[in-house]
UniProtKB/TrEMBL annotation, chain A:
The keyword Magnesium does not apply. Keywords: Cell membrane, Membrane, Transmembrane, Transmembrane helix, Transport. It comes from Kribbella pratensis. This is Carbohydrate ABC transporter membrane protein 1 (CUT1 family). Belongs to the binding-protein-dependent transport system permease family.
From TrEMBL, chain B:
This is Carbohydrate ABC transporter substrate-binding protein (CUT1 family). CDD domains: PBP2_TMBP_like. PROSITE patterns: PROKAR_LIPOPROTEIN. It holds the Pfam family SBP_bac_1.
Length: 307, 436
């Protein structure tokens, strides 16, 4: 008998104590539920409606059916923003996870003062999407920024990294990679769970460090890698603050840092085009949904659940 | 004790993250009209953009007004130009617009056509009797007055005499100079400064540059009936000239220029003494002078034929005072705007920082008190008075984006990513696409 069936049969014969417990449960849930309905679901449904309208923020929305969605097909700047976003996601996420995993493995070796290093490496994750760091980034990669001052010391005359369309996106990729701390901490926790007897047995059989990593660590860590991958991809698709601050809100130079989210914001609040912006938000939801679904489907082939 | 992140947990985690992706929305409708707070406390919100200089002066006026009107509290909300409009759009959409809004020509129709601004002709206690009709008409359309001119300015070249001196170049005669002179002198300064500074900031980081270029060639950025009035040929010429400035090294590198486009006034290349010249609005002379610590000088825009009267200059309403149509305190807001526009006490503080006062009595009263920079910009406005062309039509709805668009195409041209003719065509197509 399924768990659901059991639940069903239990219903109706709740004791007073159970009812009180349930009430308490809902009360504790209430802040979260209220937030979910008022701050998330409500606006989401509103934006779904708005995505079928012409809405200029000031006057009442006008129903225009699928026009917003067909318009996306011929919007060159939107296509460019997709290119920028995809580049960002597919370059920065693998790099970030690789560095996170590498450092996690190194730290797991019982480095002295590990708690300290863990905190230090985790710090960028806390700060990474903040405005302060984005402003710092502008200073570091600007024409007279820290990086160029360092390069000057070794006789290289650097350029304005964030103001050149060919390198601006690169600085944002570096910023995202730099926030490797949070996947690293999760990797570390995962590494701690791999029973040491596997390694001992492998050592007895003569397996070297690399062999042990690829035959034990990596397979047993795949659920964690999967988890990190899914989360970081979603996170990267939604990146906004860094690009907004670094480019001064323009997505520039020449739209080279015009993330999809930034273009969405620009249409909605800069161009009074909130209907279109809402349609874009739903399009992004679909894109992220597809990538996540694909991740889950593919996970069958490489994620190893040891249970 | 295994750390387990089962599929379900992963799914849940991503579901919550996903939800955040599309939460965007707005609110429409809301209470209008003025409520009578007779004797009660009233709080007005007042928003403006501008430099530190402006913020200090404006706050001084607010304090003075509050002293005379103890029942009114005015909360200033201010910021840089970039970001100001996003914020205003957001607050208006959320039905939370400030009561008094410093408005720009670019966005006046955008907001007024959609009913977000009060018709000031209907506002009680706002006197426009001392305004020249021409200065009023800039904020007037469809029979209503939606923005009250807060100052008169004109697009101009700003020159830093200290940088000219450092380069050993004399400040040219701006009544006869041509675009070729401008390029040649700028290039000479760049060469002499040898990397420590440049002749001029790029033309094309502001659509006013294109507008003047068009006006010198018998066209105009906007037409009176709200369309684009500049041809692909003239726009191409304009971008070619921008490219010429780059190739002659009259302007800094493309990277430098693109970085400077987003810099705050106080940190801009002109304010930090890296440029001998740049293009600004005449009323910004004070802010740039204070930021740079130099007594900067205004020069006329160069012309094609060396005659200043043909350089296409025009008086512009530097900015406007508007009142939100949804303000709950329209009467009090109108009274404060009236104070800003007509009260000598306010005029004596604000002087000409927002442009030459359009109220003729105030103008006469404050002229002797102007700080050197303001006096210079007021004199400049007066001097060019006899050389002006036709008034320049205001941008239509959707035209507010043109500044960002031209900056983007200027960047494309400067980096050599688009040829001038391709950039001109793409620029015009995109601007046309934005017009509603």
């Amino acid at each position: 008998m399924s768990a659901l069936g059991e639940l069903g049969s239990l219903r109706g014969k709740k004791t007073a104590g159970q009812k009180r417990d349930n009430l308490a449960g809902y009360l504790f849930l209430a802040p979260w539920l209220l937030g979910l309905f008022l701050i998330t679901i409500g606006p989401m449904l509103a934006s779904l409606y708005l995505s079928f309208t012409d809405y200029n923020l000031i006057q009442a929305p006008k129903w225009i059916g699928l026009d917003n969605f067909t318009r996306m097909l011929s919007d060159e700047r939107l296509h460019n923003s997709l290119r920028v976003t995809f580049t960002y996601v597919f370059v920065s996420v693998p790099l970030q996870l690789a560095i996170a995993l590498l450092l996690a493995v190194v730290l797991d070796r019982g480095v002295r003062g590990m708690a300290f290093y863990r905190s230090v490496f985790y710090l960028p994750s806390l700060l990474g999407s903040s405005v302060a760091i984005a402003i710092l980034w502008r200073q570091v990669f600007g024409t007279t920024g820290l990086l160029n001052q360092l390069l000057d010391l070794v006789g290289i005359h650097g350029k304005g990294w964030i103001s050149d369309p060919s390198t601006a996106l690169g600085t944002l990729v570096v910023l995202n990679v730099w926030t490797f701390g949070s996947p690293m901490v999760i990797f570390l926790a995962g590494l701690r769970q791999i029973p040491s007897m596997y390694y001992e047995a492998a050592s007895v059989d003569g397996a070297g460090t690399l062999r042990r990593f690829f035959s034990i660590t990596l397979p047993l860590l795949t659920p964690i890698i999967f988890f990190n991958l899914v989360l970081q991809i979603i996170h990267a698709f939604q990146a906004f603050t860094q690009a907004f601050v670094v480019s001064g809100g323009s997505g520039g130079p020449s739209d080279s840092t015009m993330f999809f989210t930034l273009y969405l914001y620009d249409r909605g609040f800069g161009n009074f085009d909130m209907g279109y912006a809402s349609a874009m938000a739903w399009f992004l939801l679909v894109i992220i949904g597809i990538f996540t679904a694909a991740n889950f489907l593919l996970s069958k082939y490489w994620v190893f659940y040891d249970d | 004790m295994r750390l387990h992140i089962p599929r379900v947990a992963t799914a849940l985690a991503l579901a919550t993250t996903l939800l955040a992706a599309s939460a965007c929305g707005g609110d429409s409708g809301g209470p209008g009209g003025s409520s009578d707070d007779a004797g009660g406390k009233v709080t007005l919100r007042f928003t403006w953009w501008g430099s530190d200089t402006r913020t200090k002066l404006t706050q001084q006026v607010i304090d003075a007004y509050q002293k005379d009107h103890p029942n009114v509290t005015i909360k200033g909300e201010f910021g840089e130009w970039s970001g100001y409009w996003d914020k205003l759009a957001t607050t208006v959409a959320a039905n939370d617009a400030p009561d008094i809004i410093q408005m720009d020509e670019k966005y006046l129709r955008e907001y007024a056509d959609r009913g977000a601004l009060l018709d000031l002709k209907k506002a009680q206690g706002l006197d426009t009797g001392k305004f020249e009709p021409d200065t009023l008409s800039a904020g007037e359309f469809d029979g209503g007055l939606y923005g009250l001119n807060a100052g008169i300015n004109s697009f101009a070249v700003v020159a830093n005499p200290a940088v000219f001196k450092a380069a050993g170049v004399a400040i040219p005669d701006d009544t006869t100079w041509t675009w070729d002179d401008f390029a040649r002198i700028s290039a000479e300064i760049s060469t002499k400064l040898n990397g420590k500074g440049w002749g001029t900031g790029a033309l094309g980081t502001n659509e006013a540059g294109l507008n003047l270029w068009a006006r010198q060639n018998g066209e105009s950025l906007w037409t009176k009936d709200g369309k684009l009035g500049v041809s692909p040929e003239k726009t191409t010429d304009f971008f070619k000239y921008v490219l010429k400035l780059r190739d002659m090294k009259a302007i800094p590198s493309a990277e430098f220029t693109s970085q400077d486009m987003n810099a705050a006034l106080d940190q801009s290349a002109m304010a930090t003494g890296k440029l001998a010249m740049s293009f600004i609005w005449s009323n910004q002379l004070l802010a740039f002078s204070q930021a740079s610590g130099q007594q900067l000088k205004l020069l006329r825009i160069p012309s094609t034929d060396g005659k200043a009267a043909d350089n296409g200059s025009y008086y512009k309403g530097s900015m406007f005072w508007s009142i939100s149509s949804r303000s709950k305190h329209q009467k009090e807001a109108a009274d404060f705007v009236n104070y800003l526009a007509n009260n000598p006490a306010a005029g004596n503080v604000l002087l000409a920082e927002r442009g030459v006062p359009p109220n003729t009595e105030i103008r006469t009263a404050v002229t002797p008190k102007l700080k050197p920079a303001d006096a210079a910009s007021a004199k400049f406005i007066q001097d060019i008075g006899k050389e002006l062309g036709d008034p320049s039509p205001a941008p239509p709805v959707g035209g507010g984006q043109v500044e960002k668009i031209i900056q983007r195409y200027t960047t494309e041209v400067l980096f050599g990513r688009q040829a001038p003719d391709a950039a001109a065509k793409a620029f015009l197509d995109e601007v046309n696409g934005e017009l509603k």
